[in-house]
Write a structure and sequence with these properties.
Layout lengths: L1 E4 L5 E3 L16 E2 L9 E2 L3 E7 L1 E3 L2 E2 L2 H11 L3 E4 L3 E5 L4
Antiparallel strand pairs: 1-2, 1-5, 3-4, 5-9, 6-7, 8-9
């Protein structure tokens, strides 16, 4: 999954998978080390997340299902097309 931080114009990678552990208290506000920026990342710093339709050459993702799961958590803004789902976290 790709992400853009509010503070810069670079697009980075977010590394979360089924083995990620969310039991630590800092997960309430952010997390560390699971991104290509190699630093601490707070949720309030994320401008948007991009979920690509094609995760890799062997895996396609169901973007409508991802959107539906996110909508169960709360009300969010999305941009979606046949290639990707963009979750808008902060409007500039």
């Amino acid at each position: 999954m790709n992400l853009k931080k509010i503070q810069n114009n670079r697009i980075g990678q977010l590394y979360l998978n089924e083995n990620s552990i969310f039991e630590f208290d800092y997960w309430q506000t952010g997390f560390e080390g699971n991104n290509s920026f190699n630093d601490w990342l707070e949720y309030k710093e994320i401008e948007y997340l991009i979920f690509p339709k094609i995760a890799d050459s062997d895996h396609a993702q169901d973007l409508e299902q991802i959107k539906s799961i996110i909508e169960k958590v709360g009300k969010f803004c999305f941009e979606i097309d046949e290639h990707e789902l963009k979750l808008i976290c902060y409007r500039v």
